[in-house]
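User: Sequence in, structure out. Go.
Assistant: Echoing your sequence, followed by the structure tokens.
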Amino acid sequence: MNHFFFKSLIFDKSNLFKMKSHRLLLILSLILLFISCKNEIRPRTFENISIEEIKIDSTSIRAIHVLKDSTLFFATSDGNIGMSTGFTNKMMITTIKHDTITPHFRSIASNGDALFVLSVGNPALLYKYTDGEAELVYKEEHEKVFYDAMSFFDAKNGIAMGDPTEGCLSIILTNDGGNSWSKLSCDQLPKIEQGEAAFAASNTNIAIVDSNVWIATGGQRARVFHSPNKGKTWEVHNTPITQGGKMTGIYSIDFYDSNNGIIFGGNWEDKKDNQANKAITQDGGKTWTLVADNSEPGYKSCVQYIPNTEGKEIIAVGSTGVSFSNDGGSSWKEVSKEKDYYTIQFVNENIAWLAGKNKIGKLILNQN
């Protein structure tokens, strides 16, 4: 065989192999592109949302906790712990009394093994509720005591926050599954500003992702406190949310992941005011950017990301109705005029429970 021909044959076969490889890579790329496009979550749109209402007599509900099987737990302003199983209207209610005191519950949380409820006002009463029995696990007496929200990181570690009794926020922690709680001293926390506190509006002043916890404040200052290690160390960041009045500031905070979060609130005394009442972060809460400024909606007491929607779909509720965003908070649309729902929590991307003044609501999202 001619030496030149042999070299040419090798070259041609090599080129042929390269051409086949390039074609294979192109086909694989097109397949992956097709799969990614097929799996891409397309934000939904809703003209209106229907809410099935369940009346609850003579009580206000600002704290709910839901399970993946649609079981709802709720705590009321007149000392009740309630439960609805399987997304039904059937309610089971237990009443708690402390001596002559009827606890006013605005916080509820679970570590997976037990339920915990925390009252506002003096004295603060924190109960662990298991198998129909309520055990008092923390009590704090102070003329300024007022706890706003509570949540758990995992089965062992939990946190609750409240207004300052001294020069810092009131923060209590547990690391033994809620059997005991201890309060952080002010030398472990950033100083609070004069007139800065929080609002017990929906049990959503706290947001947790993994070991991160964020806490939102209002009043004279509207800031976000952050701990990356389950409350051991803290830093605080300013926000552009309206502030300076007694009832202005952040009423609710939520994070979709460790970077992307949203804060919502406004001015409770001027609920139609939609200026500087909602902002997002993409750097874990270090900086915040106003969204949909001077546009719908106004004041809201609770904001929540809808799960499994890549942080695009968000719902905000309050005494002014229900609003929805499908672009990460950049724009909003009113989807229900149902008022006096103070808090919402999702079971999954299609189902949620709401609660408010004398009522509980069941919401099912059906795309138009």
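User: And one key feature?
Assistant: The CA atoms of residues 129 and 200 lie 21 Å apart.
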